[in-house]
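ingest -> fold -> write
write: protein_1
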Amino acid sequence: MRLIQLKLAGFKSFVDPTTIQLQGQRVGIVGPNGCGKSNIMESVKWVLGESSAKEMRSENMDSVIFNGSENRKPISRASVELIFDNSLGKAPTEWSQYAEISVKRVIEREKGSTYYINNLAVRRKDIADLFLGTGLGGRGYAIIGQNTISQIIEAKPEELRNYLEEAAGVSKYKERRRETEFRLRDTRENLSRIQDVVNEIIQQIAKLESQAVIATKYNELTESHKFHQAQVWVLKKRDASIVWKKHQSQVERLVNELEQQTAALRKIEAEVENLRQAHINASDEINKNQASFYEINSEVSNIENNIRNQNELLERSKKELVEIEANLTKNAEDQLKFTKEIEGALIEKTAISELFKTKEESFNTLKSSIQSVEAQYLSSSEQFNLSANQFQSTQEKINLEKATIDFIHKTEEETNARISFLSNEINNIDLSGKSLLEEKDADLSDKRSDVEKIEEKISENKSLSSDLEEEIDTFRQHHIEIQKELSQIEGEIKTLAQIQDDTQGNESLKSWTSQHNINTSNRLWEKLKIKTDWVTAIESALGGKLNAILAQYESIAHRPPASMVLANLNASHAYKPKNNKLNSALDAIEISDPLLMNLLSEWLSDCYLIPKGESYKNFIGDLEQGEFLVNQQGDIFTKNSVSFYGKDASLNGILVRQERLKALQEKFPSIEKNYKDVLNKLNEAELQLNDYEEQADSFSEELKDSLNELHQTEIEVEKIQQSIAYANEKHSNISHEQNELMVKLTQIEVDKTSKSSLIQNLEGDLHRFLEQKTATEEIKKRHEFEYESARKQVNEAEIQLQESHFNLKIIDNKVSELNTRVSLLSEDNNALNNKKDIAKASINTEHVDALQTSLREKLTVKDEREKVLIASRDNLAQKETDLRESEQKRLQTEQAVHPIRDKLEQSRLNEQESKLLFEQFQNEINESQLDEVVLSESITDKTTVKEVQELCNKLQEEINLLGPVNLAAIHELTSEKERKGYLDSQVEDLTSASNTLEDAIRRIDKETRDRLIATFNEVNKNFTEFFKVLFNGGQAKLELLGEEILDTGIQVTAQPPGKKNTTISQLSGGEKALTATALVFALFKLNPAPFCLMDEVDAPLDDSNTLRFTNMVTEMSKNTQFLYVSHNKIAMEMAQQLIGVTMQESGVSRIVEVSLEEVEKMELAN
């Protein structure tokens, strides 16, 4: 991949978006000190994932964002983007298909960084993986800054190996190994946790098994209790059924008795109903007669009222007739009066009409003559108004201009006063802060230096602490492994000892041996040492004798409580095998004790071994009487029988366990000592780490104090800078304002001259307009007088005409009113005549006589109807007496029915209660979900509820005696066993995975080792060649400080021409730079990076060395693109493209690009 474009925006001094086109293989960056050249190099390093703010020459990572300048405000975002040409597809597989690859990093204040590849958001690790093994990583050799040469020179041997690993491309292998180790550690931790869980589950299963037995017993008792309880319900149901039937028969008897009494009651109620109907009929009859009586009585009252009203009407009509006659007389007199008044008004109207016509003609004549006078007056008024307006307008303009001149004079005075004030202000501005600023800057530099020193101490402390923490982690891991091994051995020793101890018999046998003082005697198996292949065979041949106690048995008083073997060790004659054709079992025993050998020869003299792989058939024929064969599996063969040996034998493996126990007991002390040594080292390292942490706390406090002082000084410097900036800005603003005020004064003089000339012209116009106004005013006044005289005559004529017209209207209204009154009087007379006729008609006595006759007839009918009413009342009283007697008889019968009904209701309640009990017991049986037929099979007619209930209570007591029962134990036991099976399979899987990961680590180590060795040899060869080129002779080489290249360091030895062989640290400055450059180029030649950044690498070189250096870079640029910063002319001449960096605006860097190849072409063309 080749870098073709670099884009910066907001990164340090590159505040504006800047794009740098990289066209050649050798691109030089030039410019004055402090213009921002190194910021370009740092931007590339930053976008590749640099996370150290110190490497960016910043306090924190947010400091890479442009922080403002004198003329620009700070911004909140910075980004850098690298664009690579990948047309050859050399990028990693994931990105190889893209012709161009864009790598971008964006940072926002207080939000952190975001990484992108081809505008896709990625992790920082993805960026590192993209350039892994190319020399562009965090420990890469392709970015050579101003301090990189010194880092290589001062690097520790282990740090030099890191450069070799980057060149070898094993960084990815180390990363894979680290990830594999993490996975292996996690796998082991998971395995340990699962094993702990399995142990807990085993304990839980043992606990659940005992609980499951109780739960099973509980379920059996519960089922039995449920069955007998259901039988109780069956018995109770049987008893409830008998009671229910008894209550049913009683209800039927009471129902019949109640029906009889009810029939008698119905008969009496029918009689009562007939009497009640007769009483109702009698009541209806009396009501009818009473209504008839009331009706005739009402008619009599009405007639009496009519007679009384007719007499009153007659008297009233007579009085009204007299009043009507008087009103008619008065109306006739008024009518005559109004007729005379109408005639007089008509005569007056005729005279006024004649006068109105005369005045109307005079008014029309005057009105026509006033129009010409009015036209003259309006014309003269218009001319006067025009002259007056012109005069007024001119007068206002003059006043306005005079006011303007006054304002100009006032403004002139204020401007002069302001100029004087500003002059004083300039003289008072304090510009003496620059010397104080220089002092504070020097103090600020010292404090920053102090902070950097403290940070270096903290960094060194962190490095030491980190190394010590890694060492502690190693000790802890070793400690855990030894502790685990120690625990395993200790547990195995205890287990084996317990197993061996268990072979000595039960407690009673141990007690017997203690009583006879032979409990401390050795067992035979403790003394035996047998060839490995024949342990099982000897165990089988000796059988129970293997567990024999080696002690004198002559003093034994009584038999032991269990079977056992006692053996004496004496110097009796040894038994020798008789059969020379076979291999004796004694040959498999490796002991030197002759007494013990005598005992074994007695027991094994007739025992012979079947060689491995041979059949017993080949040797069975050679056996003598009493002899037997045994094979490696422990099977015993005689001429007529075979006894197969199995693992269930009581002493199986006792000898092997004894050998294992001895080996573990011998191994345990050394492991325990190793454990204590590691523990002591771990404690010492932790104490040392605590010291480092205390130093770190001290350094942190010191750094905090220094930072506070630095911050305070920075604030003071900033205040001084702000004060100086404010003073400069104020001086500039005042000078600018003074210039503006001088220009304003010049304009004021011009305005004063122009306004004075304008006022003179306006005053001449004003005099002329005043003369015109006076002349037109005289004409207007004359015409106005003529018009007012004529208008006054017209107004007087109009008033007289209106008075005549008003008088006519008054007379018309009077005539109309009088006619109205006459009409009203006529209508009133007609109404009075009608009333008079009515009154006369109402004075008639014949109607009153007719009413008197009708009254007498109605009184006779009234007496007859009153007699009928009295007879009906007597009949009703008799009917009420009969009804009362029948009602009393009905009540007596009904009272006799009530007790029977109450008994019936009670019996029905009893029946319902019995039914409910029956249904309740049936529901209980149904809820038990047991077959009632099965429940009834063991129940006889003599079985009682009490007997079965007692049995249930007994079962309940047994259930209670079980105590708390875990009913879920059976299910939990099954579940735990399934879980244990699952975890066992997981243990197998994790064990397999652990083995696989360990194998993977071994393969990675082998691959890494092979690559490093090959790379070391090749780099060493290249380093020697480049050293000779750069020094024009001499020799240099790389040396391994240990045998294992994976963890050893590398040392550089160099011998410039004419000097002794020495290490790189003892060379001069220029020699160190050339040696380090030779090493870097040796790495480049082996594994060329896509591009190389060099920041003033040639600074310590003289011209001759610089020339050799540039020649080598030119040669290397065939495979690698070089982007370098330099002030050296020779290095500049090497460049195919020069990029100039300037800082014309304070704090802001800009780019100027020059292609030297195009310049040369242009020169050749010219």
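write: protein_2
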Amino acid sequence: MNKKAIQDQLNSKILLLDGAMGTMLQAEDLTADDFGGEQFEGCNEYLSLTQPEIIQSIHEKYLAAGADIIETNTFGATSIVLEEYQISTIAYKLNKISAELAVKACEKYSNDEWPRYVAGSMGPTTKTLSVTGGTTFDVLTDSYEEQALGLLDGGVDLLLVETCQDMLNVKAAFSGIKAAFAKTGKDVPVIISGTIEPMGTTLAGQSIEAFYLSVEHMKPVAVGLNCATGPEFMIDHIRTLADISNSAISCYPNAGLPDEEGHYHESPTSLAEKMKQFAEKGWVNIIGGCCGTTPEHIKELSRVLEGLKPRTITETAHGHAVSGIEPLIYDDSMRPLFVGERTNVIGSRKFKELIRGKHYEPAAEIARNQVKKGAHVIDICLADPDGDELGDMKEFVEEVVKKVKVPLVIDTTDEVVLEQALKHSQGKSIINSINLEDGEERFEKIVPLVHQYGAAVVVGTIDEIGMAVDAERKLEVATRSVDLLVNKYGLNKNDIIFDPLVFPVGTGDEQYIGSALETVNGIKAIKEKFPECLTILGISNVSFGLPARGREILNAVFLYHCTKAGLDYAIVNTEKLERFALIPEEEVKLAEALLFETSTETLAIFTEFYRGKKAEKKDNGVILPLDERLGNYIIEGTKEGLIDDLNEAIERGDTPLEIINGPLMDGMSEVGRLFNDNQLIVAEVLQSAEAMKAAVAHLEPLMENSEDSAKKGKILLATVKGDVHDIGKNLVDIILSNNGYEVIDLGIKVAPQQIIEEVRKHEPTIIGLSGLLVKSAQQMVLTAQDLRQAGIDTPILVGGAALSRKFTDFKISPEYEGPVLYSKDAMDGLAVTNILHDADKKVVYLEELVEKRERSKANAAIAATLEKPVRKQSTAAPLSDVPVQTPRDIKRHVLKNYPLDVVQPYINRQMLIGHHLGLKGKVSELLKQGNEKAVQLNDLVDELIEFLKTEPDYGLHAVYQFFPAQSEGDKLFIYNPDNHHEVLETFDFPRQDTNPHLCLADFAKPISSGQMDYVGFFLVTAGKGIRKWAEKLKLEGDFLKNHALQSLALETAEGFAERIHQLMRDDLGISDPIDMSMKERFAAKYTGQRFSFGYPACPNLEDQEKLFRLLQPQDIGVELTEGCMMEPEASVSAIVFAHPEARYFNVDR
């Protein structure tokens, strides 16, 4: 039967791909014998030989459920994977048999009205060329070719290269497929489906745009995404693909992630609901399921997609574009794009020596510096006549792609070297260059490589006559080249970049007089005639042979004129680029005279002017006096040069103590002033403390014993009983100990009795108490009472989120004999501590404080005598009667070692960098603008996340469960899931006194309704091992990292809570709309709400005990302290309601 081509079918409907093969095989409960023996157990592909009827029946179940396309059971059937089971020799046979089984199943269902298709599944193998290595491009190509041959001979309708994590593997697969097409004389459509990790790139680092641009030349019938962690992680990427792709779009996600029992999170209904939204947005042409999906999922997809139109496929979706790890999609406003030229053995002596010495990593650093200074692409030329260009190219490209993400320009005349580079770079590179010097010979050699690996190509305006000097000849050569390359060789105009050639103006060579102007006119002429093509120039050629400073000026002026004429790419040294706008007018005129009126006279004037001239130093290298320099190290938080200057001060005769208490402490005071003036942020204060610690550590060994008592005072710090929060206290410790105080840190959950004993032992000058919770504020009152009973009157400094100046003055202070002082943050604490250690200031400060408190008391007494209006008591505001949302199940779900990758996008960087690390402003905007502080802190966060990902002792764990529940008045009854008459726990929630009189119990159906409702509970932790690593960083003097790591753990726990709550909404059938942004999620714009105990809507922290009894989170390593706090601290628990009107409120308002 002649089946309708899949390309035609794609235009008429959204095609359905089948679901998982592995999930279905798991459900069969196969034994080792079914697999053909123990050594083959787990090799699903081998079942095509041993259990063909099972495989065929699975295919048929999917076809019956409505699949248009079924995949062969060959995901891992390349010889490279089968090698692990010692059956690599049967790879061809296995693929052919598997294809025949699928074809047989398909023939039962396929007809003219509803054609069905078989896709030959080609998985990513177990090796990735860019990430794991372990094989070579050519070995992989052969392995894929053998697989493709088996599939084609078995009769597949198309090939599906899927779960692509590394573009080099995809390129190898494409090379293998092309070879198989050539051998069989059979050409079928190819679909390429990538996998994007939760952090937004493929495993090998490419973004979706870079991925697409790198496969576009393969002309796939469809490009898309599969696998991953579920549909919500594909939204942005599929939307982007739909914008730039000129082929069809496929999307078949996993059914979420499995829990400990192996149950996948997305039900047929929830998955179909999400995928339907993709279709309604007009983003997709092919939809299906990956891991965890079953015929039920496909059936439900078939039902919801009925009648929905496929995405319209456009011909030209974008203009010129190239890619590395990141894409470069060109538009006119980006002109000129800079091509970094220093990675060139002909142009840079330093680079040549590094390559000759095989020092590839430092050589790649040169490329990184070019990018840092603004290069959009990097030109790589390794054609050293005395070197090994082929070997060097392989090694250097492998190294450079680790350091730079921009596209590469491969600059070589040797096609073997060129192919080597293309096999090692994931992206769509630029080939530099081809021309007609030897007729079409070079076109014939290079164009096949463009079609095989994907690339744009630089075409020089040279033909058999020679180099085109005047504009007319440049255009003539360009016109002939376009005609051949587009019409004969099948290239796209967007992929052609003309080099109209530039000649030196300073050599006095007669034939090049006037050539600079001809080049400018040549650019103009080519751009006018071929607007889709681009132009490129090696700018610095123009100034060859001139004095160094003159070259920089001439290059900048020439670049300005070429850009005005329409130049797109400029090959320059981005590290030495003069800004045209900053060049004095007189020098611009000298340069223009030499460029456009070249003569011996203009050359002599120009050369004379620049002879011996140097570029002016960019920095105003004023050398400050030594004391100021020492203070500056602290203010700027830098250690560079610090030790040398400290040694200079010692040699000058200063004692270590004079240095510490003099210039270094002055620097610290200035840090305090700048912080209070909002000119410094927390992160910078910590860097200042690091510099201080390094200075003191260097000076301490030089101190004499008599100086050891140089500490200004002794501070005892503690987080009060029942409270496990210590980030704030740690900050105070770091700030005080680096400002000359001895700090004794008693840690967290410190009982009053322990404080009393330590005060007697150490006799501190100040006691510092910290607490985060409302309950901790009360605990401070009790602690103050106990200290007073013990006869202690040392000044107490209190701080923490739960406290206010008012609470300190009215509630804590009256219970204590000595002074009790409130500080709003660590720097404020330092200021108060400094005052208390200065005898004169202390007296004045305390007198003023007493006076202020007396005034406040008097005012409060007057206010108390005024009559208060009588409040009318009204009943609770009625909430709408909404249907019960029944959860998918009421089992307990434990998620151990949940992937940090998945939680990473849920980490709120505004809170982390803005709140915890103190950066003022909108973090996302500052990052976009390239703000130095924002980028530095963001990089630090990324570095810490990477550390946690690789640390085997770290893990994210969660537990959640839904319970039947009903309310009665202010009470919420939680029933046993197995027996709805048995009450497991009763919560008695407070109600607001004022309108709208809300109480959490209102969000569940009352018993009187006769309906059973459900509430969920969850607990997540991200704190395992954090305290240990934070302590280590603190001891090493890495204070910023110490604080950032603890803050990251807290925000990771919050992000994990956000993720688990989202999974629970999915389970309740109230999934978020697919275009909900993370920002909206952080603002709780979803249906339903979660509430954590101890917060304003449910302030009773003791309710945690009930949650712990219900969920048993001890299994995931979380304990409840005496004060009902979770340990580790970076843990979040909550109760979850599905009611659409559930919202946050404060019971005291």
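write: annotation protein_2
The radius of gyration is 36 Å.
The longest strand covers residues 957-968.
pipeline exit 0
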